[in-house]
Description:
This protein is of the alpha/beta class. The protein contains eight helices and six strands. It has one domain (about 10-135, about 175-220): 3-Layer(aba) Sandwich (Undecaprenyl pyrophosphate synthetase). The chain has helices spanning about 15-20, 30-50, 70-85, 85-90, 105-120, 135-150, 160-165, 210-220; strands spanning about 10-15, 55-60, 95-100, 125-135, 175-180, 200. The protein is globular and about 55 Å long. The two termini are about 15 Å apart. The model has no long low-confidence stretch (mean pLDDT about 95).
Amino acid sequence: MGSQSFPSHVGIIMDGNGRWAQSRGLKRSKGHREGVTSAKAIVKKASDMGIKYLSLYVFSTENWKRTEEEVSFLMVLIRQYLKQEYQFYIDNKIRVIHSGRREDLPKEVLGDIDQVVDQTKDFENLTVNLCINYGGRDEVVRAVKNIVQAGTAPEEVTEELISRSIDNGPLPPVDLIIRTGGDLRSSNFLLWEGAYAEFFFTQKLWPDFTPEDFASALDSFGKRDRRWGGYNAHE
């Protein structure tokens, strides 16, 4: 059994919405809508299981490369999600925060994000970190720029300072990153926060990923031996 059998912070790369739809002869937009339904179910499961922090890779800095039609749809879907699930967050005392570059996001999307963030800021059950227009490298670059602009001397730059300067510095490091869809890569997700994260990969496409699958991923995590760069003296 690992030294930490239950994760505090879980990140999810919700991959496979488009492929899920295309395999059924549907538009990619249908897959994204189904993905929203899956996200709500997993958020509820995480809350019920006592997870404290859940980071969801909603829209990456690279997703702007998709077609204008798909990007526009995703922006609308993000707004709909924030509005439709607002009462869900209130009822379950879930705090919502945002990670990612604010620039480039439509002002309407930013307004909806800011409203939900402000009105859930005092909740202490589960914190859902919505990574929208997010990239791990971009996050670190922005943090370093802020440190430089603050006039920090080079010798004062530490890992702790960078950790405090990223988008949501108060959050603990990521313990477990789940990726659906079959690909085996991090895709620029939580590079700094997830430096020592365990990974759980599944072939299931995101709309097919169930709360039971989520529980299985956590069970897998609990059986791992996390060495943090060291070794197990009993081996």
